[in-house]
Specification:
9 helices; alpha/beta; 5-stranded parallel beta sheet
């Protein structure tokens, strides 16, 4: 038996969003590495063994963390390292796995719910939709790349301090100010703040809400509060709208995104319905003879007399005892 480290997704913040497998690994561990910003230490202490060791790995440098892994390997202990959200989105996962492998530790990765998924779910939206080809992009506050990615018509997720909202809005200044934005602050926690705004109002709204710590910004069409679904044909008075590199533009049902060979984006409109070819001329029917027209008068008179005949008969009928 060798020592092992399980990288467990801690989810977006709420303790009950950790998977059952992740909770099982926490309960079995000899050592749990966590950060208070990721997991509530009071809750965590109630989930681990009495003799388990809890370490805030944010206080450790690279050498101290490596020494901790060596100790695990020599004692053949099991450890859990809690990773915010989903470990698959952690930029240092590969490096940590390689380090554990060199030290003779087995490695397991337990998936978790990403803050992006939690934020989209909190808005009642999905980051992708059937019938659409919007591309979802995850980025780590690289504002120089956000502008490049956003112009391609994608929905962009940016993890960054809320205090940098004005900087993000400036990086996207070339876009239409009406592009929808959702700011998810402490998503899934009891003190969660979910702010819906637009790119033009982003900085002012974040400042008014007094948000400054780490947050998630979702920018793009997928977080619009109401959006026509695939197959929905809007009336002329309620056109659907799509986000392009130039602006929000009205779109007819059936529009979709497509990429040209040079990487630019174009909106492909549905073809106009074909105009039916004119039918061949059909000769008008010949007028009815005059005699036929005369026969209509007696028929009409007969119809008028029928109600009177029925009324007379009804009066003469004897009543039932």
């Amino acid at each position: 038996m060798r020592g092992a480290v399980s990288f467990v997704g801690a989810g977006p913040g709420a303790a009950d969003l950790i998977t059952l497998r992740g909770a099982s690994r926490i309960a079995e561990a000899d050592l749990v590495l966590y950060t208070p910003g990721t997991t509530d230490p009071v809750w965590l202490r109630g989930q681990v063994r009495v003799d388990a060791e809890l370490v805030d790995h944010a206080r450790l440098d690279a050498d101290e963390l490596a020494e901790l892994y060596r100790r695990l390997a020599s004692r053949r202990h099991r450890a859990v390292r809690l990773v915010a959200g989903d470990p698959a989105l952690s930029p240092d996962l590969r490096e940590q796995r390689e380090l554990c492998g060199k030290l003779g530790l087995d490695v397991e990765v337990v998936p978790g719910i990403s803050p992006v998924s939690a934020a989209a779910a909190a808005t009642g939206n999905a980051v992708t939709e059937l019938g659409g080809v919007d591309t979802f992009v995850f980025t780590e506050a690289e504002f120089d790349r956000v502008r490049e990615l956003a112009v391609e018509g994608r929905t962009v997720a940016v993890h960054a301090p809320a205090a940098r909202a004005a900087e993000l809005a400036e990086a996207l200044a070339g876009l239409d100010p009406e592009v929808p934005v959702v700011v998810a602050y402490k998503v899934s926690r009891s003190d969660e703040v979910l702010l819906r705004t637009t790119l033009g109002e982003l900085a002012a709204e974040v400042k008014a809400a007094n948000l400054w710590r780490h947050a998630l910004f979702l920018v793009g069409d997928a977080v619009r509060e109401s959006k026509p679904r695939a197959g929905y044909a809007p009336r002329e008075s309620e056109p659907g709208r799509r986000w392009t590199s130039r602006s929000w533009r009205s779109a007819k049902s059936g529009e979709s995104w497509s990429k040209r060979g040079n990487g630019s984006v174009a909106v492909v409109e549905a073809p106009e319905p074909e105009t039916p070819e004119p039918e061949a001329d059909v000769p008008e029917p010949a007028p009815k003879p005059a005699a036929a027209a005369k026969t209509t008068k007696p028929a009409a008179a007969a119809k008028k007399q029928q109600p009177r005949a029925r009324t007379t008969t009804a009066k003469r009928a004897p009543r039932k005892s």
